[in-house]
Amino acid sequence: MNSDALTKLIKSRRSIFPAMFNDHPIERETILTILENGNWAPTHKKTEPWRFKIYQGESLKSLSKYMGDYYTENTPPEKFSEIKHKKTIGKPLKSACVIALCLFDDPNITIPKWEQRAALACAVQNMWLTCTSLGIGSYWSSPKSIINASEFLNLSEHEECMGLFYMGYTDITNLPAKRGPIEDKIEWK
């Protein structure tokens, strides 16, 4: 890939939300390719702190139920919204695949936690760009329900969930995006 193609891919990456997905399934091999590219993210001292829990097919129903139950149990009655509850349970069900983005923070390694989180974020960016190149919409979300899902996700003592990566094919293309000029964000020394 030349630099022009890479720049075009980076600039075409968008958050594509589950409501925009169609019902086309994502093949297991495609998911493995996406995760393999995530696995090649930079990581300080080669800790590779990312862990992924994949929800696809029937398991999306259990994720949906968990998220709906969490919303119901943790929302005061005066703030409860049927619309938000419906959206919460609907997101996994509209997705072809949802990946819980987990971080393994090895207690025997003295790397700052922020560096481990940055490595996971780099892995997600690799996954996101791969999805974009394959015509798969994707979106990283970090609702409280999943941040507090250690038991549901069966996480170890040294793992935490940093969010969900929703994926699905979409018929929507060329969504506009805007970034301010880079010149406003740099200072030459």
Would you write up a description of this structure?
It contains seven helices and four strands, in the order H-H-E-H-H-E-H-E-H-H-E. Helix content is 42%, strand content 16%. The longest helix has 22 residues, at 113-134. With 189 residues, the chain is of the alpha+beta class. The chain has a domain at 16-56 and 93-171: NADH Oxidase (3-Layer(aba) Sandwich). The model has no long low-confidence stretch (mean pLDDT 95). The protein is globular and about 55 Å long. A four-stranded antiparallel sheet has the order 1-2-4-3, sandwiched between helices.
What is the topological layout?
Elements: H1 3-12, H2 28-38, E1 50-55, H3 59-74, H4 82-94, E2 97-104, H5 113-134, E3 136-141, H6 144-147, H7 150-153, E4 159-169
Antiparallel strand pairs: 1-2, 2-4, 3-4
Helix pairs in contact: 2-5, 3-4
